[in-house]
Write a structure and sequence with these properties.
about 160 residues; 2 strands; 7 helices; two-stranded antiparallel sheet; disordered C terminus
């Protein structure tokens, strides 16, 4: 016996008697759900949604996937810089160790909060364009990246 992938109703024919979903039709995420999931595991889910067929064609999902990837890279660079500065200051004076630990924790909490905020806003259908990162993601998502036909139009060859 088959069951509907959308509502769970028992199906006997080609279509669900309750919601009308076709048998064998895969359940799809809504655009806002896919956009929010782009931020769940940073660059990993960003890459997944750039590769998955129905979502990589949607400009909004592509934007959030790219912004998630770029944000993950920026966070990795920030965390590395904070770690290096912390190590340097702790080397100078071990008394600064608790302060540096608090700084690392604050950065980690801030990053976690930022990703949660981005997930929440994209789930609500709001498009938050982060400075620099978001603008780059917008250009890439719309196909206007460096070297694209839109970028080279009007330039002499």
């Amino acid at each position: 016996m088959a069951y509907c992938t959308r509502c769970g109703e028992r199906m006997e024919g080609q279509f669900c008697p309750k919601c009308g979903t076709q048998a064998g039709a895969a359940a799809r995420l809504e655009v806002n759900e896919a956009s929010a999931l782009c931020y769940l595991f940073g660059f990993v889910t960003g890459i997944v949604f750039l590769v998955l067929a129905p979502y990589n064609r949607d400009k909004g999902v592509r934007f959030h996937a790219l912004q998630s990837i770029f944000l993950s890279v920026a966070v990795a660079v920030l965390r590395a810089a904070v770690r290096i500065v912390s190590q340097m200051l702790v080397t100078v004076s071990f008394a600064l160790a608790p302060l540096m630990a608090m700084l690392n924790a604050a950065v980690g909490l801030g990053v976690f909060g930022l990703f949660l905020y981005m997930m929440w806003q994209s789930y609500r259908g709001k498009k938050v364009v982060l400075p620099v990162i978001g603008e780059l993601a917008e250009r890439q998502a719309s196909g206007r990246g460096p070297g694209s036909p839109a970028d080279t139009m009007g330039k002499a060859a």
